[in-house]
Amino acid sequence: MNLFGSIEAGGTKFLCAVGNEKNQIITSEVIPTTTYEQTIKQVNHFFSVNKVSSIAIGSFGPIDNNKNSDKYGYILNTPKQGWSNVDLVFPIQKELDIPVFFTTDVNSSAYGEMHLNSCDNLIYYTIGTGIGGSVIQNGQFVGGVGHLEMGHQMVKKHPLDQDFNGVCPFHHDCLEGLASGPSIEARTGIKGENITSDSYVWDVQAFYIAQAIFNATLIIRPKMIILGGGVMYQDHMLGRVKAHFKLLMNNYITIENLDEYIKTPSIENNCSATIGNFLLAQKLLS
Amino acid sequence: MNLFGSIEAGGTKFLCAVGNEKNQIITSEVIPTTTYEQTIKQVNHFFSVNKVSSIAIGSFGPIDNNKNSDKYGYILNTPKQGWSNVDLVFPIQKELDIPVFFTTDVNSSAYGEMHLNSCDNLIYYTIGTGIGGSVIQNGQFVGGVGHLEMGHQMVKKHPLDQDFNGVCPFHHDCLEGLASGPSIEARTGIKGENITSDSYVWDVQAFYIAQAIFNATLIIRPKMIILGGGVMYQDHMLGRVKAHFKLLMNNYITIENLDEYIKTPSIENNCSATIGNFLLAQKLLS
Fold it and tell me: What would the mean pLDDT of B203-226 be, rounded to a whole number?
């Protein structure tokens, strides 16, 4: 029986896991993200002990996942110290001598959710420290010349938010600048977890997230949109986002069942990425 | 040698054409859009005289192009009197007894431009009386559950345009509400063709169109974006749009050659739709 590897490469930890053909986790290990060299060494050690037939990596970004590029397999310019312009794929592929699939963390999550929801046309957004997104059309990732950067789209300002400049260093008040976790503290001076659920801030956040879903609905026409990430852990957020989405759409496109259309991830703690990676690793061998 | 049919179904005219395997137009006829029954009768008469092996229709919308739908082949709710909820495909397919491909007018144009630019990852926008768009990824139209409605995405307001409400009956100040042809006259009281090229209005329009390209760049990552439609016929517009796009992007994603990335259509008078239809009709037989 073949076993498959998953690496969720994040800025604070690398989650390595081994799964079987039923996507069950056989074993896993959390490796802290330290220096590039040491982290890769520990990842390779884990998979030299726990042998697998192929691996998929879902990485923090930006990354180069264009197979025709000189820098294929690299993490590109990242604020994470010591991790800009490093080759993530080659040192693992060379050491373990197995096929490695390389994509973004959100693509891995989207692929897992595609499987868990039996839905091959969907969009996955993560709304946390940053905002990222993935689009799957007929089981394929959308992205002509590179991975998507849906978090930085332009949005219309909320009337109560006109004076807030946004926190994106590139675009100030793009979606990420206005609706990511850090924007909450920047706007109010209070950490998100200390803001009561009746604060106007949540409604402002929901308005921006609803615009992202609205735009994605018109530009992609998916069957389903999944909203993950820390900001969506607030119980009241999903309902607020749906309410704003309905107002924005104004019946222009009919969504039969909004509760089936806008959802949070099927499994908690981002495990959809692990399952997505197992499936992407399996696909390398087919 | 097979011949192929193209029908560009518009609100004022139906352009019927016959092409050969080299996409050369053999003959064509402009049929005014009168009543539904009379227009279909004239279309069928044209193709009964000028025989073809298959036909592609690129239609004004909204349409139902979901093959699993009861209303597949229909024009849906349109402001065009007498044309709401009419079946465009069946009466043609039945009378001529040949395969018929049914899509949006912008999809036909995008497909023609894909061929003319040898580029299978592109976006086509038409900016005229309305705003529509098409996305092609690896030679396939993007659109999970129906055709795209990219014209209605939300955009950030231009500082000089804060008091303008927009002309979209559904969303007021969405992209179409702020940047379509009719928005120009609604904003100024003057028809677009009578506004000098140094008016601030063009810069406002370009700002919105640039946002549409910016969002599409982040959400799709295409190789190329083609801008068609009446508003883009103004010679100075393309340059303005590129300038705003550069400002918005702020080097977040590097576009190697902006002049190759943002372009107007390869051939004039919307002939890319005819070529797109010939190719889509050919594909039905392959």
Answer: 96
Give the pLDDT confidence score for residue B214 in this predicted structure. 97
Identity of the amino acid at A29: E
Task: Kindly report, residue by residue over B116-159, the tens digit of the pLDDT.
Answer: 999 999 999 999 989 999 999 999 999 878 899 999 999 999 99
Interface check for A152 against chain B (CB to CB < 8 A): the answer is yes
> Does residue A259 sit in the same domain as residue A123?
yes
Residue A48: give its domain's CATH number.
3.30.420.40
| Domain that residue B87 falls in | 4-108+269-283
Residue B113 lies in a domain: no
**Mean pLDDT over the full length of chain A:** 94
Task: For residues A239 and A137, state if they share a domain.
Answer: yes
Q: Does A171 touch chain B (CB under 8 A)?
A: yes
Is residue B96 assigned to a domain?
yes
Closest chain B residue by Cα to residue A220: B143
Beta strands in chain A (DSSP E): 4-9, 13-19, 25-32, 54-59, 74-75, 86-87, 100-104, 122-127, 131-137, 140-141, 224-228, 262-263
A199-252 pLDDT per residue, tens: 999 999 999 999 999 999 999 999 999 999 988 888 899 999 999 999 999 999
Q: Are residues B245 and B259 in the same domain?
A: yes
Residue listed under structure tokens 């990219």? B150
| DSSP 8-state code for residue A269 | T
Q: B192 and B222 in one domain?
A: yes
Residues A73 and A126 in one domain: no
Question: Are A45 and A138 contained in the same domain?
Answer: no
Contact (CB, 8 A) for B215 and B245: no
Is residue B99 located within the same domain as residue B136? Answer: no
Q: Is B221 on the interface with A (CB under 8 A)?
A: yes
Q: What is the pLDDT of residue A230?
A: 86
* CB pairs < 8 Å spanning A and B: 125
In a domain, B125, yes or no: yes
Would the CB atoms of B153 and A121 count as touching at under 8 Å? no
Residue A113 domain flag: no
Q: Does A157 touch chain B (CB under 8 A)?
A: yes
Q: Which regions in chain A score pLDDT beneath 50?
A: none
Closest of A145, A144, A149 to residue A132, by C-alpha: A149
Q: Is A118 on the interface with B (CB under 8 A)?
A: no
Report d(CA A19, CA A273) in Å as an integer: 12
- Residue A221 distance to chain B (closest CA, Å): 5
CA-nearest of B82, B66, B86 to B74 is B86
Residue B156 is nearest to which of A149, A156, A222, comparing CB atoms? A156
